[in-house]
């Protein structure tokens, strides 16, 4: 049991390290020409599939727990305007891409560990932690960006 707890703790620590690296890499590539293509990623367009995968459950958990304090800038105020929505969308995109970079790093480490047959006990906990702390938040940012895009469309008409 202690080994499992150790692998789970190590997985969470590793995933948070990937989050920091993801933010650093994101800041390094933000002004590159290809970055504009990354701002329009949309993996799951179907709202029903989002619900089935639990993205809306994650949204509820974040809104009603201590996690909401981690990035308080990503909050839509009642006094919203077009510029505020554009800024909010850019911040969401920034967070999304940082999470995706962290997720990709996690997948690389998991793959390397698997291929090298090294610390195989950490593969499953690391994959679960990587998915929960990087993939799902990225999907949530995409979900929220679609909601912001709907509000922005109202300003155009």
What is the structural class? mainly alpha
The Rg value, from CA coordinates, equals 17 Å
Oligomeric form: single chain
> Quick one: biggest sheet?
none
Q: How many domains comprise the coordinates?
A: 1
Beta-strand share of residues: under 5%
Helix content class: over 70%
Q: How would you spell out the order of helices and strands? A: HHHHHH
Mean pLDDT across the residues is 89
**Uncertain ranges:** none
Shape: globular
Number of helices: 6
**How many extended strands?**
0
Termini separation: 59 Å
Notes on the protein architecture:
This protein has helices spanning 2-29, 35-38, 47-53, 55-63, 82-115, 123-156. Helices cover 74% and strands 0% of the residues.
Keywords:
157 residues; mainly alpha; 6 helices; 0% strand
List the helices and strands and how they pair.
Blueprint lengths: L1 H28 L5 H4 L8 H7 L1 H9 L18 H34 L7 H34 L1
Structure, briefly:
Keywords: Acyltransferase, Cell membrane, Membrane, Signal, Transferase, Transmembrane, Transmembrane helix. This protein has 157 residues and is mainly alpha-helical.
């Amino acid at each position: 049991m202690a080994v499992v707890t150790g692998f789970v703790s190590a997985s969470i620590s590793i995933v948070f390290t990937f989050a920091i690296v993801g933010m650093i890499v994101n800041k390094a590539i933000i002004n590159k020409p290809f970055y504009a293509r990354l701002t329009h990623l949309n993996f799951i367009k179907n709202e029903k599939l989002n619900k089935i995968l639990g993205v809306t459950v994650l949204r509820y958990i974040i809104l009603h727990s201590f996690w909401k304090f981690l990035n308080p800038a990503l909050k839509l105020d009642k006094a919203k305007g077009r510029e505020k929505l554009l800024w909010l969308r850019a911040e969401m995109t920034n967070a999304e891409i940082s999470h995706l970079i962290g997720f990709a790093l996690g997948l690389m480490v998991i793959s390397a560990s698997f291929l090298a047959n090294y610390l195989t006990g950490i593969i499953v906990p690391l994959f679960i932690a990587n998915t929960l702390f990087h993939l799902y938040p990225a999907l949530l940012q995409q979900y929220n960006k679609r909601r912001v895009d709907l509000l922005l469309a109202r300003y155009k008409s």
